[in-house]
Amino acid sequence: MKIYRVNMSNLSFSIEDVPEEWEMLGGRGLTSAIISKEVDPACHPLGSKNKLVFAPGLLAGTMAGNSGRLSVGGKSPLTGGIKESNAGGTAAQRLAKLGVKALIIEGIPEGDKWYCIHVHSKGVNIKEETELLGKNNYEVIHTLTGRYGENTGVMTIGQAGEHKVLAANISVKDPKGHIRSAGRGGLGAVMGSKRIKFITLDDNDGAGIDIKDKEKFKNAAQLFNKGLLKHPVSGDALPKYGTDVLVNILNEAGGLPTKNFRMGQFDKAEKISGETMYDKIVSRNGDPTHGCHVGCIIRCSQTYNDKDGRYLTSGFEYETIWGFGAGCLIDDLDIIAEIDHVCDDIGIDTIEMAGSMMVAMEAKIIPWGDGKGVLNLLDEVKNGSYLGRIIGNGADFTGKAFGITRIPTVKGQTMPAYDPRSVKGIGVTYATTPMGADHTAGYSVTSNILKVGGHVDPLKKEGQIELSRNLQIATAALDSAGLCIFVAFAVLDYEPMTQAIVDMINAKYGSDWSVENWIDSGKTVLKTEKAFNEGAGFTNKNDRLPEFLNEPVLPHNAVWDFTDEELDTVLKI
Amino acid sequence: MQVDVKLFASLRDGNFKEKMTELNDNSQVIDVIKKYDIPLEKTAICFVNGRDADNDQVLHNGDTVSLFPPVGGA
């Protein structure tokens, strides 16, 4: 494999050998290593010194189930720290098949033209782009599929990225031509700062995937894949209900943040639940079970149609439904689906937009529960109006513009769908992960609520710091392998799974890692990211939850009661 | 005594969403599970009044019992 380096300042491209220190890195491990090495942590994230790195994981393109996740790295314009955004879709496997270990994009073009990049087996073309500038993501994907064929990978920014608003994401085409998102942290704005509208990937005649010991790999992969199917969460619940099944669980547990983190329960939870979604999907001839990349065994995605049976959205996640639903008090799943579609189309993070909308409702810009109002504000974001730019810059920026103090962010990024007071393990992750408030970075909900990997009482402090720390480490290792985070359910409950991952890595690369080596690789990623953030000016003061969470939350009157000293021990690894 | 029994996800199939249930005093969570013929291995998550409960937890009048099969997400 090679490092592909595109320089937008002089519109040139070079292929480099992989330095030895990056050989055993992939996915997030690689993007964070490259950003840490090559980007000045004090740089302006929308300036010429920031870089954008796309990397498939260590196992991309193999027969390992769920191994095709893409990592995108850079300095985040939203948090001001290091960011890895993780997406499904077909890009990672195509990059791997092309022999691209990482695609690094640096510099900013002179003048004011926009560009597109085409990656193929002979190299890279950088061309001026005018036709699709200003167009929605679905239209971009559709047009490029027509232009280059079905078998083309597409990574694109919508109008949000073109406007460089801080919540802009990067969209990745999935096997059905629908949209997956490298969602959090505004890397779409970084791509927009380099005036790249889209990147296409043609992996025909690509070098293919190299595996040193094919027999050993196959045996480990078979065990791994069987384990994914056998576990009831990855094998049954996620394919049928998708992630939205969490609405009712968190609601019953009193951890569903409602009306901008005022309560832990939403009286309309049933109307936006996974059970309701499943019934609607089936009755409207949608598809409740759909994989976001080839080789995804878990298939947690779906096709959600409107009441006339027309496609409305896909990849319709708990986070999105919680944010606009319980968070903003919108109880109509169809309106939330339309919001999801618009966010995908204009290329903006749904969690961050839910944060912006909650704050906009605090500021009385629109009323609580006003779904049409949310759609109107998203239209402003799309058009780049002054109000749209405020909203599109996320919850923190919106709160500052309107004098609101109840802003649900950590390191400038909106907190996801779990109340940190009544799901304390996730609160520890929100505070301490280098990513900003992020649930996937150390998903303590597994043990706090779902009884996967043991049980740690969500309402007590005991065990949460260790839980969050261990999950942050393991997740960093999984992200580097390119594995979907949902393999974690089987990995946490079935010990041979971890060994199988290590066996697959060793079989592919000819390495001799132990499980401990693999865990250590996760620790290295976290240390690298923390060091970058320190260089960017972060201190332990940034590892805290917002002040307004001092109040208790019903139904359990749960409080956030970790001390500063306790939180400072989490990432001492 | 009366408890409010709520079933979720696949536990609803062939059963109900929510039902007020009469039980003998000192009944436990397991008695609710048995009463509604729910296979034990399917009840992965149980809350009583929103807090995690084991099968042998004793119930009181007015309790809410929420039962889930193994589910997950993010």
Structural account:
The complex is a heterodimer of chains A (573) and B (74). Chain A folds into 3 domains: 2-201, Aldehyde ferredoxin oxidoreductase, N-terminal domain (Aldehyde Ferredoxin Oxidoreductase,  A, domain 1, 4-Layer Sandwich), CATH 3.60.9.10; 213-241 and 420-573, Aldehyde Ferredoxin Oxidoreductase Protein, subunit A, domain 3, CATH 1.10.599; 260-285 and 315-417, Aldehyde Ferredoxin Oxidoreductase Protein, subunit A, domain 2 (Orthogonal Bundle). Helices cover 40% and strands 15% of the residues of chain A. Chain A contains 22 helices and 17 strands. Chain A has helices spanning 27-38, 91-97, 137-148, 159-163, 187-193, 214-230, 232-241, 246-253, 274-283, 318-327, 333-346, 350-362, 371-383, 386-392, 395-401, 424-432, 445-448, 464-481, 488-493, 496-509, 515-535, 564-567; strands at 2-7, 12-17, 51-56, 70-75, 82-87, 100-106, 115-120, 123-128, 153-156, 170-173, 179-182, 196-201, 287-290, 301-305, 311-314, 409-410, 413-414. In chain A, strands 2-1-6-3-4-5 form a 6-stranded mixed β-sheet. In chain A, strands 8-7-12-9-10-11 form a 6-stranded mixed β-sheet. Chain A has a 3-stranded antiparallel β-sheet with strand order 13-14-15. Chain A is globular, with a radius of gyration of 22 Å. The mean pLDDT of chain A is 97. Chain B has 1 helix and 5 strands. In chain B, strand 3 (45-48) and strand 4 (51-52) form a beta hairpin. The chains are: A alpha+beta (573), B mainly beta (74).
The dominant shape of chain B is globular
Tally of discrete structural domains of chain B:
1
Number of strands of chain A: 17
CATH architecture of chain B: Roll
Q: How is the CATH topology of the largest domain in chain A named? A: Aldehyde Ferredoxin Oxidoreductase,  A, domain 1
How many structural domains are formed by the residues of chain A? Answer: 3
